[in-house]
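Q: I have four molecules that I believe assemble together. Could you output structure tokens for the complex as a whole instead of separate predictions?
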Amino acid sequence: MDETAALAEFRAETRAWLEANCPEEMRQPVRSDSDICWGGRRFVFSSPAQKLWLERMATRGWTVPEWPRAYGGGGLSKEEARVLAQEMRRIRARPPLSSFGIWMLGPALLRYGSEAQKAEHLPKIARGEIRWCQGYSEPGAGSDLASLRTSAVLEGDHFIVNGQKVWTSYADRADWIFCLVRTEPDAPKHLGISFLLFDMESPGVSTAPIRLISGSSPFCQTFFDNVRVPRANLVGERGRGWEIAKYLLTHEREMIGGMDSGAAEGRDGLAQVAKRALGLGEDGRLPDSMLRTDVIRQEIDSWAFALTMERVKDEAKAGQGVGALSSMLKYYGTELNKRRMELMMSLQGTEGLLWEGEDREGDLARAWLRSRANSIEGGTSEVQLNIIAKTMLRLPAA
Amino acid sequence: MDETAALAEFRAETRAWLEANCPEEMRQPVRSDSDICWGGRRFVFSSPAQKLWLERMATRGWTVPEWPRAYGGGGLSKEEARVLAQEMRRIRARPPLSSFGIWMLGPALLRYGSEAQKAEHLPKIARGEIRWCQGYSEPGAGSDLASLRTSAVLEGDHFIVNGQKVWTSYADRADWIFCLVRTEPDAPKHLGISFLLFDMESPGVSTAPIRLISGSSPFCQTFFDNVRVPRANLVGERGRGWEIAKYLLTHEREMIGGMDSGAAEGRDGLAQVAKRALGLGEDGRLPDSMLRTDVIRQEIDSWAFALTMERVKDEAKAGQGVGALSSMLKYYGTELNKRRMELMMSLQGTEGLLWEGEDREGDLARAWLRSRANSIEGGTSEVQLNIIAKTMLRLPAA
Amino acid sequence: MALVLTDDERMIRDSAEGFFAEHAPVAELRRLRDSRDPHGFDRALWARMAEMGFAGVAIPEAHGGAGLGMVAAGLIQEAIGRNLSLTPFLSTSILSATLLAKGGTAEQKAALLPRIAAAEIVVALAADEAPRHAPAHIGTRAHASGNGFRLTGTKPFVLDGHVADRLIVAARTSGADSEPAGITLFLVDPKAEGVRVERRSLVDSRNAARVTLEGVQVDGADVLGAVGEGFALLEAALDAGRACLAAEMLGVADRSFALTTEYLRTREQFGRPIGSFQALQHRAAHLFCELELAKSVTLKALRALDEGDSRSAIFASLAKAKVGEVARLATNEAVQMHGGIGMTDDADIGFYMKRARAAAETFGDSAFHGDRIACLMRY
Amino acid sequence: MALVLTDDERMIRDSAEGFFAEHAPVAELRRLRDSRDPHGFDRALWARMAEMGFAGVAIPEAHGGAGLGMVAAGLIQEAIGRNLSLTPFLSTSILSATLLAKGGTAEQKAALLPRIAAAEIVVALAADEAPRHAPAHIGTRAHASGNGFRLTGTKPFVLDGHVADRLIVAARTSGADSEPAGITLFLVDPKAEGVRVERRSLVDSRNAARVTLEGVQVDGADVLGAVGEGFALLEAALDAGRACLAAEMLGVADRSFALTTEYLRTREQFGRPIGSFQALQHRAAHLFCELELAKSVTLKALRALDEGDSRSAIFASLAKAKVGEVARLATNEAVQMHGGIGMTDDADIGFYMKRARAAAETFGDSAFHGDRIACLMRY
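A: Yes, here they are, computed for all four components at once.
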């Protein structure tokens, strides 16, 4: 398709600017967690280049290209944003900033926040000054998120928050939390929920990391003991937080679902891994015929899934989308990724079992274990199937 | 294990009698439907030998070896009956009589029937004089059998039966029917059902065969229009027929579940079929590696299932059974058999698609289509899984 | 090009769906089957398909066709699958038309393509010899004779062979029985001496024929493409056929899924619609996802053929393999969820299961195409 | 013999279950892991296993064992799986004891078997060299030297190698790297010159070692079995190990299933126990059936070994292949049904998933054994 002249000009300018401003070090693939810039009050940059790159991009508003300029964004159109993304990929530029503020809270604030809330929080997100975490799940409320019990009782100009959250990603490193609380204990369960923002340094907030089966601890339990939150930090209407929560969940779902792309470009395909692990027989085929069968089936499904992501995007662009397919992508993508990791483990045999030791031993086993959470976090596979049955297939409620 | 002297003597006598009395023609494998003796008023024997074999066996009560002699049975112990079965297998003797009366109604009458009912019906079943069919399912009541609506209203000494049954096997050839009817329309649904016997020649009974996707019509719809059934033909208590029905269903389930035995002796294994269809490669393996994988997995499961049937039987004998596993055998066996037939079709490629024509063309496709009913008839796979979840796993009701 | 239908393509889809639903629904399949129709399809329908531009959809306009390409052809075939319509579209308008358009001489094209577009003739491909698809496995021999060849061999499964006005026969002019090199394609008149055609009926009520060739004389003008180099041409046509079969299976699967979800919403058991049972809901929801994948691979395969993508063989195999499995799952689940009703000949759903199986076995099943993908990707 | 446990075997099963539940439950695995115990198991437990007759369960009474055979051994290993107990039972009491009992000289048996039965020593098998099990793939070389051999090679994955008092090393005295012929087994002292042992930790908190042999001198008396004919002996021991691993995986799967159904009965979401959701009920019911199959193949494999059944290799592979898949399904479903809790290190269920995976990869996974069954059945 031909690009409009304006867009072509934007592309040329962008390319030139990126060439001039993206530090060489920031053009390398992300190799470890410390290469990711999360921002926040307590963030320690892993290099001067990482800091410089964030500052330069934030100055242009390009950490959040499509947000309005008034809130620290780049004010770009969808097409311009796509061009920027393409040009960044071209030079393999790293994302200047990764943040739940950008992915989740920002879009919700843009839609549901008051003017004061937008002005207060969005620029700090855009500049990576405040790192956010998400207070949704509770010990008794997993898939059944709406049964949450953390309470927020209004006393004068403050909500007094008491309760406990689990699965708060990086709560121990976050500055602020966006949090679902129950403000109307007597309302029907979906209608008593509100959406609050507060500082993690508020008195009464404490966190404890959760150790996972993979050995790492990206999640915390978070406890609230009479935490005082200014009433002005309520987003949207009181008792209407469930709507905002659902809006956020849809974003999260699409993010998680997109993780499998076995046959997609840029990533080492399963077949390549199999070839390295097993070699090829004289007939040019992988020598273990049962494993080869499983690899083939996995590759077929991965490819079909990648094409489906492409088609869904193209249909959305063309205005032909059949509606929210995020549950489908989330369910299928995560199940696929789990199968892929199982196969990766099978291909490596006993070497895949190694846990600690020299070099990167244990990486594969950890990634395998990590993948098991994909079909649980952000709404379990079972919840996604329920949603599909109800919204896409219009099957009657149980 | 050593056989007791008495059992050894019984074996010797049985062997001698069978040798002397089983016609040579009755020692051939069953090749077509006409080789099966169903008995009944209108049955036409396919050969004098078939008739003779039935008469001789019936005279000894060996069409129903374990039934009491008083009702036309052989009065054998479990051990003697096993010896008889072994000796019949030894000379490949055909069953002298196949009948729903033997498999289903007989055991139920022995347990629930009145003395008069036993004396009236059991000897005729044993001698193959009366052929029975089963009136259970109705158009609106498939898996939910207990919601049946065929009514039986008592008027004086007769029930007046009105309604409709479906899936009545061979109703068009049967002499009598054992039938579930609703006698208490106001009772809770499981408590209003009664178990009636009546003659298919009664005025008001009519049948219409159902054509299946396989082209054959073993089943009928059966209609009852003011059929008068003597009150004495009620089996067990009025309103307690559901218990009898369940007892029968367990028998049926075990019969259907046992149909897969891919790796069992005596039947051509799937691997053999695959070898004939595909040949072997130079490495001694089937040349199509994906199909070979599927064949291997199917053979593993078939073998594991056959061993499970063996273990369940052995445990029952040893008094160690964990309870009714009939739902497990029914569910798994039928699903396995469906997969097996799919693979058989794949192995034959386009030849498997042939429908009518020379020789036995169409046999495979018909058998494949027939296999699809296995997981529906006698309680669907879904119903069996419900039963397992409830009775074996004690999971809470929905 | 974006992986989405253009406005033109959506119009074709809608008009094809309307056409087959009106003129060739499942009831028509039933009628043709039960009357044991000697042709196994309705010639009037075939003629109407010419009027609609369907018969020549993939034939260049220069030869009387619509020149719309494979995406359009696939949409027609999808509508055929949705309605289980009986037509010689696949054999004639896809396989034979592709072979002629890509490999034919000017004379051959002029003689045959306009007549296909006009639905005046049926042309059938007589290639496969093994029950399990193996396109290079050609044992039929063509020996040089006079200014042409004499053909001898048996083709046990020629789609629409019993009604074909012309056959395209793959025979071996050199090489061993399963070598790609040495295969040559010939145009053969089924009425020629030495040709025997026996109709064979199939489980899905389509028809095929066993074609036996006993020293059938053809001359040099009957050679289609280059002598000994027919395999590449054959594969190109087969890939078009495979992509269209994927589209047909997609139609079969999608329609049987729609019939099933409708049944789930209305059929009651245990006092509630069976679609309210969560175990069935989850299976249906999973199937929904599989169908979405099937749609994507089908469109990609057709698009790749139109674009001359160097990976179009891979995409054709991807579509045939994936959609074959999805259609099998969809129709099996459909019959199971329909319960006893699904086993009766009165219900339409069984026809979908039969067709899904037959289409999956035609020109390579999922095992064949999975292996082909891996070989093309070198593993 | 009937496919059912005898009264004696049921007593062994109950006593093994009681023993490991009391002395080596999951909490003990946690303790050993978190304290980074240098042995990776509790020597006191191992000594108690001798008192119970477990350490020598499969060793003939003449050599100080209980002489109870493989069904008994499998029941012990099943209890080990159920409790995830850490012991050198598999390496020492099954693999090494089988090799010594079947292939050892009178002197070797007298020297080692009673000490194994008494749990005084740990003996480890150093055979596999490839990450994916390939028992004939032995590259370690044994060159004649003096009145014995010099061994050179690397064994990257020797179970319990870090605590072994004696190693049984498979090395090649002749033949090519992946030929069955030419393999010889040797008894090697891990303290001998040229032996290097490096501990490697595993995902399931078991331990293995990389054993490197650099010109390690052994003499003729250290040869176990006949020179060059070690493969058959090795396979016999491996089949015993595979059947016992199937038993262990059965214990793992069965216990994780029990934990899961218990969780389904008690955990509430949406105002009701999650076990009341039909989709989960059906998955659990299916798993129940798979577990029944797993029980049957395991018992058959063990029984066949005790009876010297000519098909015992097939049954060992059948059990390893089938139970491996069932254990994978059972533990995956267990983690999924436990939801977020299942992903935490605090919950036991993750340990079962890790062990199921590790046991499945050891001595051949389902792909390996599926292929082996087919090859043994000649297809």
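A: One point stands out. The CA atoms of residues 265 and 275 of chain D lie 5 Å apart.
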